[in-house]
Amino acid sequence: xxxxxxxxxxxxxxxxxxxxxxxxxxxxxxxxxxxxxxxxxxxxxxxxxxxxxxxxxxxxxxxxxxxxxxxxxxxxxxxxxxxxxxxxxxxxxxxxxxxxxxxxxxxxxxxxxxxxxxxxxxxxxxxxxxxxxxxxxxxxxxxxxxxxxxxxxxxxxxxxxxxxxxxxxxxxxxxxxxxxxxxxxxxxxxxxxxxxxxxxxxxxxxxxxxxxxxxxxxxxxxxxxxxxxxxxxxxxxxxxxxxxxxxxxx
Amino acid sequence: xxxxxxxxxxxxxxxxxxxxxxxxxxxxxxxxxxxxxxxxxxxxxxxxxxxxxxxxxxxxxxxxxxxxxxxxxxxxxxxxxxxxxxxxxxxxxxxxxxxxxxxxxxxxxxxxxxxxxxxxxxxxxxxxxxxxxxxxxxxxxxxxxxxxxxxxxxxxxxxxxxxxxxxxxxxxxxxxxxxxxxxxxxxxxxxxxxxxxxxxxxxxxxxxxxxxxxxxxxxxxxxxxxxxxxxxxxxxxxxxxxxxxxxxxxxxxxxxxxxxxxxxxxxxxxxxxxxxxxxxxxxxxxxx
Amino acid sequence: xxxxxxxxxxxxxxxxxxxxxxxxxxxxxxxxxxxxxxxxxxxxxxxxxxxxxxxxxxxxxxxxxxxxxxxxxxxxxxxxxxxxxxxxxxxxxxxxxxxxxxxxxxxxxxxxxxxxxxxxxxxxxxxxxxxxxxxxxxxxxxxxxxxxxxxxxxxxxxxxxxxxxxxxxxxxxxxxxxxxxxxxxxxxxxxxxxxxxxxxxxxxxxxxxxxxxxxxxxxxxxxxxxxxxxxxxxxxxxxxxxxxxxxxxxxxxxxxxxxxxxxxxxxxxxxxxxxxxxxxxxxxxxxxxxxxxxxxxxxxxxxxxxxxxxxxxxxxxxxxxxxxx
Lengths: 250, 288, 325
Fold this sequence. Notes:
The complex is a heterotrimer. By secondary structure, chain A is an alpha/beta fold. Chain A is 34% helix and 24% strand. Chain A has two domains: 1-81 and 167-250, P-loop containing nucleotide triphosphate hydrolases (Rossmann fold); 88-165, no CATH class. Chain B has a domain at 2-201. Chain B has helices at residues 2-16, 23-41, 44-65, 75-97, 124-146, 148-158, 160-165, 170-193, 203-217, 222-248, 253-278; strands at residues 113-116, 120-123. Chain B has a two-stranded antiparallel ribbon with strand order 1-2. In chain B, strand 1 (113-116) and strand 2 form a beta hairpin. The longest helix of chain B is centred in the C-terminal third of the chain and has 27 residues, at 222-248. Chain B is globular. Chain C has 13 helices and four strands. In chain C, helix 1 packs antiparallel against helix 2, helix 2 (28-53) packs across helix 11 and helix 3 packs parallel to helix 5. Residues 321-325 of chain C have low confidence and may be disordered. Classes of the chains: A alpha/beta, B mainly alpha, C mainly alpha. Chain B binds chain C through residues 13, 19, 66, 69-70, 73, 75-77, 79-81, 83-92, 94-95, 204, 208, 211-212, 214-215, 219, 258, 261-262, 264-266, 269-270, 272-273, 276-277, 280-282, and chain C through 51, 57, 59, 119-120, 122-123, 125-127, 129-131, 133-135, 137-138, 141-142, 144-148, 254, 258, 261-262, 265, 269, 295-298, 300-302, 304-305, 308-309, 312.
């Protein structure tokens, strides 16, 4: 009956008197990239945390693929198919790039609680992980310890971890932050490909990337969504210009 | 009583983020110092003062020599290093003073009992301890909420980098806090020394109790330490005194008293487990 | 890593040579000593699993060590008395058969670690350290005040428990039995840490939030390692009881927890053979320093502090500087 895979209604969270997210309603359709923009501290990251379940919301509901997941905890939501990247790269520092990806494959292949079988005999896991590294152009760095990867490589690895889970939706929290031009280009190409499998809710400050990628854009300010529409509509919207006063929108 | 130790411990933990297993050793040092000074001077009061000083000096020395290296380490290193400190201090004291227990006499002015309302006889000395406990609680409250040092301590609890940015000499602050914590434990040791015998290892059961208290009360909270110590004290007494009697109604007396005392000794841990089940960070702890 | 293996071989040869020397010079004491090292090493292997690989700083492993010990002692006590251990719901009699005692010690200590783990793994960090400590102390005080099995005085065993066809009273035989168990413990540990589960476990130690976000239930991951760890340590406890033919509440005391932790750290955390090395070093120190001074623990404390401040990766780390952990 509907084409929305993720549907969030009236999600609110306050810390004391301060409303971080104030009755936010937002949805994600199949095959789309929905970008979320807004100034720092507007509540974007808190919204992500509420969707993945690490921050408990005060009210509202979250429906994923026609299933109400509002009362599930973070791990259960991740299992069902929500996968995220972190604003600040969060990887397993002493694992290699390849091992990081393999870790992310474990749950989907139901191998987490294989206690005694050798990991190395699971060659399928490793070949699958290598394929993912190819997609994020890190194949040649697979044996490098994650903490020794460059900043850009770690951003890519973050996305790779999310990819490996084959989730129903992706939540990307500033995946382009600090990437150079080629890195950003690679990400843009990658996102355009993967959105065909699972749609993306994208938080990003790089406006060029947002405008190149997004099918829809929502603007969030002080915990409220003030405008929502296509890239064209948003560019023309006077409220957005007010919010981004001094911020060149081309 | 228990509060004195817990308060010192929670202060050190809360402000400096350090797990100090060796806290019980200050308790022991205080007691030994008191008994020796009392032996030399014959005065209980000088002995009390001496216990304070001795524990504080020991605190400063240990902080500067060892603890200082541990702030940036993880909990595991802190646990181990302070565990090693216990071995070192306990054996050191045994070396110096021998394994025989020492005693401390209650001053005559506090000897005997007084009559409380409802015809309850209570030892004057225990009243004195309770009084001191309350005084120290008030004093600490005043220190933390009203004085400059208190402000710095609270700032240090919240944000270590910020106060060093404000130009506060953080390592000096830590040394002072550590010394205060140690001195409180030393005083407690000296006071208890008049009731129990003073011996090596006396600090350890108390240390565990203090841990239970601050886990119940919430780490870093002095109010929590106060409430927690009352709670633990009451529970312990109930467990030891009333439970065996209570069980007497149900079974023959020898079984009842043994079962009762076994369960009684476990009661405070059961209390702690249930508090943690309800509130994983203690009654007055900050939730994560 | 190559160096570590090389080093392990030497430690091992040394350990084997001790009973050999014992036999040649007819000094069974040395064999007993080596057996003690092995048993404490097993306990350390158990703790290392939770502490080294899982990052769970348990300060309550004495509980499992003691439980294992008391299982062995209580069973043999009842076997001797020919009293029934339980009448309800099942009539269970005591036994002095190691083949019965070992599984029992493992199952019971695993059960307790499940219970303690369920409660304490809800917390983390300092609270976890303290709550595990408190649970161990709870059992300690219980064992002191429970008079049926000796209370404070502990419980002696009339005879070492037995195995079919093997005379366990022979020190060499008992040494070999313990050695076999040590290898089994090492085998289980290495299987565990090299499995997919082991990967999840080690990842949880490093970045739990990330592991949760890829859909792995870290609570379950930690609980499993805690139970394995408790069970191995429990088994070590039952062997230790048989070695001394005596158990006392001091096995449950937090000093024991601290000492097991010292083995793990001295030897080098998260290294398979580390605990054995740590235990050897500990016993050698006890024996040699103990000759010169009664206060050997004073020096032990000093050495430990210096080690923690200056040489953080344990004895193995000193020989293997490249392998940073």
